[in-house]
Please model this.
Amino acid sequence: MGTTFDVTVYRPSTESALADVDLESAFDVVRKIDQLMSLYRDDSELTALNKGAGGGETKISAPLADILQASVFYTRLSDGAFDVTVQPLVDLWGFYRVANAAVPPEGEIKKTLETVGMDHLSLDKSARTATLDAGAKIDLGAIAKGYAIDRVIAVLRERSVPAALVNLGGTVRVLGKAPGHRPWIIGIRHPRENRLIGEVRLERGAISTSGDYDRYFEADGQRYSHIIDPRSGQPVQGVYAMTVLAPNATTADALSTAAFVADGLDLLLECRNVSGLKIEPQNSGDQETSPDTLLFTVTSEPDFPVKAPFTSYEHPSVHPLISTIDHSAYRDCVWQIDN
Ligand code: ADP
Ligand code: MG
Model:
């Protein structure tokens, strides 16, 4: 997946030999998922599916069928803000090799948009086949890390690991309590500087951040980052980062990307068991102040995982956005990956 992976497993000292096996099993899971779902491997199942576009059905494995189904769910939930058929646009803008990235001509964007959209993918879950229209391609970069983490947690649970923290490229899920029966503390990065701006106390579940600072290029004083609105074909601008807390990592990963595109704490506010943090530049009038001046808004979901999940280190003004939605009217935004 071209990213970092770390797992911390806590076991009583008498079980340290088991911990070695825990870690091996965890790495095994991630390796296998990478073999299936990487765009960067010629021999991955995803590459085969993409190559088969326009040529009828492709047989797919249960995990790939699973993640594609979850992807369809998040596309529907976000009205198309999250869409794994975004691949041709990511390619057109050059985000697979950022060194060569450039703003493409408007006409190219328009043409490419015709190959993007979930209606270009059909899935047959029971026959375990997928069919892609000619020109369409899938990129699981916004959800595969979360999915892999959830599979790792499932394996660690099966092995009766009492507590663990799994971090794959900045998406994190925890199991059990941190040592001392405390919540896990997860640092939140400053979107422009190499330091932390605050922390989240995670009692359980997962956290994921989508930001504009990891993969981007600049042209004419504008920053273009790797998350693209699949409806307009344009990289999303104006938001620095969107963090989502959710019961599982697949949901946190997909929803952080979806919310980033949808500029959407509104989307998160409607979700049962989900909290969000938005980091954006603080604008004064139409004059953008120094990028150092950040505006934080958190959604305040009554139950999960804590009431005010985010503590800022230096900007005490965190704006809570309280949900006015009736509890019973919440949407179910959590893809059930754990059963
Ligand atoms: P990261 O990979 O940095 O953790 P994300 O989870 O938000 O960040 O995933 C971003 C990646 O997903 C992009 O690099 C691209 O490959 C793909 N992508 C870009 N825009 C979208 C989108 N609107 N929906 C789904 N995937 C996207
Ligand atoms: Mg994501």
Q: What stands out?
A: The first strand starts at residue 5 and ends at 10. The first helix runs from residue 16 to 37. The radius of gyration is 20 Å.
